[in-house]
Amino acid sequence: SWRSSVATRRVHTGDEWHDAPVYDGEELRPGPALTGPAVIQWRFTTLTLPPGDVATVRPNGDVLVDVAGP
Question: CA nearest 27: which of 41, 7, 12?
């Protein structure tokens, strides 16, 4: 499935370590949002979502991130 993570990675955000699912950005399509912690990786860039941040894929392929409060 295109929403299935391809791996898990330990990431440090804020003052904590998290086990975050890793998604292939090339495979993401518009649909349900991804909630952090999560990592989205493309060939030339990586997006790390801290806990509480929410990413949605727009119809044109852009990723819109709603950043959680402090």
Answer: 41
Residue 32 — φ and ψ, nearest 5°?
-60, 145
Locate 38 and state its tokens: 């999560």
> End-to-end CA distance of the chain, in Å?
33
What are the pLDDT digits (tens) for 12-56? 988 899 999 999 999 999 988 999 999 999 999 999 999 999 999
Q: Please, which residues have CB within 8 angstroms of residue 24's CB and are 6 or more apart in sequence?
A: 6, 40, 41
pTM to 2 decimal places: 0.87
